[in-house]
Amino acid sequence: DTEVTQTPKHLVMGMTNKKSLKCEQHMGHRAMYWYKQKAKKPPELMFVYSYEKLSINESVPSRFSPECPNSSLLNLHLHALQPEDSALYLCASSQPAGTQYFGPGTRLTVL
Amino acid sequence: AQSVTQPDIHITVSEGASLELRCNYSYGATPYLFWYVQSPGQGLQLLLKYFSGDTLVQGIKGFEAEFKRSQSSFNLRKPSVHWSDAAEYFCAVGIMNYGGSQGNLIFGKGTKLSVKP
C-alpha cells in the first residue's frame, strides 16, 4: 500500500481565518514533506520532517506552520494567508532518502 | 547546482502512436531519477524510478525509461499511447541531504501530453 491521504480536498478561507491541512500515511515512512504547487508549475518544497523533526524549511513565511504530531501524521496550520497563497498543497512521504509518494493534494483558495 | 530540464513544454501525439518525453539532469553524483505523472487537480503518481543497476527501467501503465549517464538523460517512453495517458509528466532527480536522512526532489518544469483520437 502506497497511499498518502490528505484532508480536506478543497478549502476556501478568508485572509483572517485559521485553518489546518492534514496528511496521513501508514507505510511506516519516517520522512514527510509539504509542497506547494501553482498552476502549470512543478511542486515547490516547503517543509521536510525527518523522524518527526523539522529538518528543512525552505524560507516559508511564518503564516504557514507545520506540525508533525507522530510518525504517521503531518499538519500544516494556516493563518492570515494572502490570495497569492492559493495553490494545490501536496503532502508526500518516504523512507529516509527513499522514493516519495504523494497524496492527492488540497486545493486551497484564499479570498 | 542540481537541475532538471524538460525541453518540451507540450507534446501532442495520436492515440496508438509511440511517445518519448525528454529529460536531462545536472547533478554531480550518481542521481536517483524519477518520473511522475499528474492528472489535472490531482496528486503526483510515481511512474518509475532509477536508483542503480539496469539502465532500462520498467514502470506502471506500460512506461519505460532509459538512463544514459553519458548524455545525462532519463527519457520516458511508451510504445503505444492511450487517451488516458493525457496528463502532465514531471521528471525529477532525488538528492541526499543532511547525512542521507531524507532525499529532496528537484523537479523539471513538466511536459504536458495531449492525445489526439
What is this structure, in a nutshell?
With 111 residues, chain A is mainly beta.
Tell me, what's the shape of chain A? globular
Count every helix of chain A, treating DSSP H or I runs of 4 or more residues as helices: 0
Helix content of chain B: under 10%
Report low-confidence residues of chain B grouped into runs of 5 or more.
none
Average pLDDT metric of chain B:
92
Sheet having the most strands of chain A: 7 strands, mixed
Strand content of chain A: over 45%
Classify the secondary structure makeup of chain B into a structural class.
Answer: mainly beta
Poorly predicted regions of chain A: none
- Helix and strand content put the structural class of chain A at mainly beta
Written account of the structure:
The complex is a heterodimer of chains A (111) and B (117). Chain A is mainly β and 111 residues long. Chain A contains no helices and 11 strands. In chain A, a hairpin with a 6-residue loop joins β4 (31-37) and β5. Chain B has 117 residues and is an all-beta fold. Chain B has strands spanning 3-5, 10-14, 19-21, 24-26, 32-38, 44-50, 56-58, 64-68, 73-78, 87-97, 102-107, 111-116. In chain B, β7 (56-58) and β8 (64-68) form a beta hairpin. The mean pLDDT of chain B is 92.
